[in-house]
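During data preparation, we tokenized the protein backbone, and the record follows.
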Amino acid sequence: MVQIYDNEEIFQFPFAVIIDKNMPRKAIFSDIVDNETYDLCAFKTQDLQVNVYDVSLQKIDAEISYGCFDQKCALGETQDGVFAGKAPACVNGYLYVKAGNYTENKQMYSTNSESSVDVILDKEFDVKINLEVGGKPLNGQAIVIFDGVKSVSAALPDASEIKLSEGLYNISVYVYGDSSITIPESKKTQCTEVPQSGISGFFGGTKEQCFDITLPETKIDYALIGGGRSEGYLFADSLTKGELKIKVGEFRTPTSVDELQYNYEAFDQTGVEIEQNIV
């Protein structure tokens, strides 16, 4: 631990030191550093066939990549939904399959023990999010987050259109409104042990030194006034319509820090309703 201080302020930070008897410090990861120049992608020795389909089992063309450790190798593209080529030998690497207007598929795959795999891609749809808060159209700002195979979000009302595919999502909706909450200035005292000056400090002697920390006054311009979170499955038949209606509850506009804290507690206990018109 390094400490730099004067009579009023102190700055401290930790760092690692390796001591090998009386020899100079020696990095313990030198062998790994030497391997950083190793290009795994230059050694494609394993046969690999990837068959790519949509949810209707129609073949689609896609780009194929393979990741092993911290390297990712571009393998090529499918022809009529089929890729046949070579890949690096790897245990528990990741196969990446990407196509336009489809959600990228990432799955664990060992090229040293497998040679063929079928991959199904979910189609992505452009969807507009319509949000109701307390039974009324949104009057303010909101963030809607869909966390599934990948995480996407909409910032309403300015950016209400996002790309979604069929699947299971954790859906979180945060609704914000104007706030007049002001957190007043506060002070606290923090004490720490510092080395003593002179010969006592040389032999490890310490003393307690205290500092006054001032937290300035803070104004909260936007506060949580509605929302909730739920888990829900979005169906392709609903997403093809290009519009998704979401309903959440409304909270009281907070006027104090305690009321703001109550809104966050209510948020965790409030669900999200999704209207899906499925034919």
About this structure: Residues 27-35 have pLDDT under 50 and may be disordered. Residues 4 and 10 are 6 Å apart (CA to CA).
